[in-house]
Amino acid sequence: MSPTLQAPRVRRAALAFIFITVLIDFLAFGLILPGLPHLVERLAGGSAATAAYWIAVFGTAFAAIQFVCSPVLGALSDRFGRRPVILLSCLGLAVDFVFMALADSLPWLFIGRVVSGVFSASLTTANAYIADVTAPEERARSYGIVGAAFGVGLVLGPVLGGQLSHVDARLPFWFAAGLTMLNFCYGWFVLPESLPPERRSLKFDWSHANPVGSLMLLKRYPQVFGLAAVIFLVNLAQYVYPSVFVLFADYRFQWKEDTVGWVLGLVGVLSVVVNALLIGPGVKRFGERAALLFGLGCGVLGFAICGVADAVAVFMLALPLCTLLAFAGPAAQALVTRQVDAAQQGRIQGALTSLVSVAGIVGPAAFAGSFGYFIGVDAPVQLPGAPFFIAALFLCVGMRVAWRRTRPAVAAAGETATEPT
Length: 421
Prior knowledge:
Blueprint: H1 8-43, H2 48-80, H3 82-102, H4 106-119, H5 123-133, H6 139-167, H7 171-190, H8 206-209, H9 211-218, H10 222-238, H11 240-253, H12 257-286, H13 288-308, H14 312-323, H15 328-338, H16 345-374, H17 386-405, H18 408-416
Function: Resistance to tetracycline by an active tetracycline efflux. This is an energy-dependent process that decreases the accumulation of the antibiotic in whole cells. This protein functions as a metal-tetracycline/H(+) antiporter.
Family: Belongs to the major facilitator superfamily. TCR/Tet family.
InterPro entries: MFS, MFS_dom, MFS_trans_sf, Sugar_transporter_CS, Tet-R_TetA/multi-R_MdtG-like
């Protein structure tokens, strides 16, 4: 561990910065969500159909560019250190938000969105930083705190962005730019380096910095490869929310925008509680394997109940169970970091982030497509809850893989097979 991070006070300050960095990233992107469609519609000449097309293109391009760039940033952080990559990402996002605020055409706004996908891939480096500065038994708790940052951003970002966009559709972009620039300045003075020179990769390896090469790197670690599949399935299942939640709630319960907003806010609050208060003590008490299986099991049950729910009360009771799925991600991340050398944490985290990006490409099509099919006139049965059943099925597969890959005998074999840099 870097000498500068030996002191607990300095280490806590560094982790606080990582939390704030992730929080501001999610908050900034949450800020622009309510106003982005209106800005796109304005630039499209007021055509809602054209705006919908461009929004779909924006979403796919954003996930695709993250898929490509996540392993690159991870490999760069392994070679040159975590601090410069994180700071460059903060600065790049700040400049890019200004660029999007000034964009006067859809192609220019699209370019800005692509660039934001490049720099928002910094979550890869943030995860590697956590692995550098925390003991293995504390990593699940730290990843849970990062998950809480996502929840806070989910609650505050869209609410604040909606208010700002009422004033001007471009105002959220300026506000997000200010936040990320403040974060860059804060990090410049506070964030220490977590990866000393003697623990870095000797060279920048392009074979592992491209997304295909980074995914192939996972195969060198059989234990990691199985856990990576679990992480992919967990993230894929969670895309059921942005893909069909609004449409499903309107179709099933006739909820309008204000009701959906409050419910999503409640989900965000539950996410903060689980990530910040429950994951750390739960993993410490029962272990990472139990936490992983518990989270997956709650997700299966919660999504299944959402799928069959025909009353608001039943659906609302399922949401806390769905939120407990948050145990799975940090536990799986912590198990992965135990299998990998410090010099390869960035590349492994980059590969995992690329998998999450693939989920962002595949998930909306799978869930929105199944929802449209099963409420259509040609469907063999009217089943609006089909996307939630599919999400539960993904988690069932993930639970089986996790059960097999995290058995004590298999885990011990995986540790002895870990390859040095």
